[in-house]
Amino acid sequence: MKKKQTFDCYSHYANKAANKERSGNYAEAAKLWGCALLFASLEASKKWCEARRDFCLAK
């Protein structure tokens, strides 16, 4: 029996945010880091999202 594939919202938003940040679109990256934060389950991931969001907002 095949394992049901699940969609990882945290990874989806974190990857999109990182790509926007790399391309210099900091405003959009900040929004996406905020979305990733909502889906982060680990404390370390939450802190990372907050740090990246704050960095992008400061740009």
UniProtKB/TrEMBL annotation:
It comes from the Bacteria. InterPro entries: ANR_neg_reg. NCBIfam families: ANR_neg_reg. This is ANR family transcriptional regulator.
